[in-house]
Design a protein that fits this description.
Helix content: 10-25%
Order of helices and strands: EHEEEHEEEEEEEHHEEEEEEEEEE
CATH architecture of the largest domain: 2-Layer Sandwich
Shape: elongated
Mean pLDDT: 80
Low-confidence stretches: 231-239
Number of strands: 21
CATH class of the largest domain: Alpha Beta
């Protein structure tokens, strides 16, 4: 990692030494994002070409990290919330140089946390504690606004966001792995008529997942021809209006509308085309 000058990003953060707030906040930030690794004992430097921080080498403090695993575990157990998150962390000390002097790093592996926001509390005394909710933005960490905390608190949307990101990353280089099937009807319009219909596609897939944000998913439709709309606006019956859904048409679905996801089958409240 040092030899190849790994850059800090959404998944990697380097710390030259063990400082309480820096360590616990970064663990919470990675848990609130997509997970990753916090590595203590590496100093970073800026890449002159990209301006991003990258691994520069083993820090001087890395010589004192050999026996710090228990200390780090205790720190996280006391200062990281929710307390259940601690049980999902992996903390290990690795020797990286034989020396002399010998050098070590502490590696903390953090999974994405789907059950609301993770936080750093400044004190175990609730009367004195401040609660900070960090979030990862590209290669940097900042603290959440109230609106962002409320958004992360919506566990169902957070859970779908993580699943959608996983699907998107699996298919980053292969669009076939990002194909989705709708298990819910869609709503389409033909002139004054509007109706709900299940999409039918010869290939058995309705759309390709193209982007995922904390609030929406963006799909490219694969097309559907000659779909009959049996109902009209305001619930009045209609005479067989026919709708063609064009290939490559973009559909943005708020995560608030997603109700279930299994495999690559998407179930949501009715979305409009």
């Amino acid at each position: 990692m040092v030899d190849r000058h790994q850059e800090e990003d959404l998944h990697y953060e380097f710390k030259p030494k063990l400082v309480e707030e820096g360590v616990v906040s970064e663990v919470a930030a990675l848990a609130n994002g997509l997970g990753g690794d916090l590595i203590i004992g590496i100093y970073h430097r800026k890449d002159p070409a990209t301006g991003r921080d990258q691994a520069g080498g083993w820090s001087n403090e890395s010589e004192q990290l050999a026996d710090k695993e228990d200390h780090v575990r205790n720190l996280l157990r006391l200062k990281l919330l929710p307390s259940e998150l601690y049980g999902f962390l992996e903390v290990r000390v690795h020797r990286v140089e034989e020396g002399p002097p010998q050098k070590y790093v502490v590696v903390i592996n953090i999974p994405p946390w789907p059950h609301g926001p993770a936080a750093y509390r400044t004190s175990v005394n609730p009367d004195e504690a401040l609660y900070k909710f960090p979030v990862r933005v590209e290669s940097h960490t900042r603290y959440c606004t109230i609106e962002e905390i409320m958004r992360i608190t919506e566990g169902q949307r957070r859970s779908w966001y993580l699943r959608a990101r996983e699907l998107f990353e699996e298919g980053r280089d292969d669009a076939d792995k990002r194909l989705l099937v709708f298990a819910s009807p869609l709503r389409a319009r033909k002139g004054p008529r509007i109706g709900e219909f299940p999409l039918h596609h010869p290939g058995g897939n309705h759309a390709t997942l193209n982007a995922v944000t904390s609030d929406t998913i963006v799909l490219t439709m694969r097309g559907a021809a000659g779909v009959d709309l049996p109902s009209a606006m305001d619930g009045q019956s209609a005479m067989g209006a026919v709708v063609d859904v064009s290939p490559e048409q973009q559909l943005t679905i708020p995560l608030d509308l997603v109700r279930a996801y299994g495999g690559r089958v998407l179930r949501s409240t009715v979305c409009s085309l």
